[in-house]
Specification:
about 240 residues, about 40% helix, globular, 7-stranded mixed sheet
Amino acid sequence: MSGLTDLLVSEAAGFGIDITAEMCGRFNIFMDLLLEWNKKFNLTSITDEREIILKHFADSLAAAELIPDGADVIDVGSGAGFPGIPLAIVRPDITVTLLDSTGKKVLFQKEVAGRLGLSNISCVQARAEEAGRRPDMRGSFDAAVSRAVAPLDILIEYCAPFVKTGGVFLAYKGSGADGEIKSAAEMIKKTGGEIAGVKRVSIDAHERAVVVIKKVRDTPGIYPRKNKEIIRKTRHT
């Protein structure tokens, strides 16, 4: 496992992140739990340990330096805990709420947080478009993150309502980020955001991007719409 640990340390260093021995231990436990639970539940299609390090752990850390100090962060559509759990490991100063609609995935997240002793993680089972209207969650977070959930023009409507005005939404994307930004421009504006930049990184020779969207105005009350409306109308409104 030491070679894989060295790989994670090296990749994280490229993002300006210092992975300590304690953090490495937590990532090792996380991997073991992911592989164990994946035998019973469909948590990830990636089961090679090196690929988990690169495509899940390192990829999740690409936005770590973009999160404000001491931020309350929500990971929308967190699945097996990416990027939220890796971010919580390397950024103990932040609190992370993992939001997912699938009960088994939320159970897994709770198991990982407990086994890793991550007191800065909480887990919520709910659909994003419903949670975004809850008074205790709407406009309550300094930052939102989301990875591999939906195209940006759809994703912004799920995520923007959670973010405080003045906060930031960090969307994990690949080489097609520029095209997604163009397609989402109108919806980003409608939901109170504006593009603040794009962080581009290379992980194992694959281009990755973190789209930084600043929340400059409150999200209008009509958003988020119901899921079917978001998917059907986003490109026509």
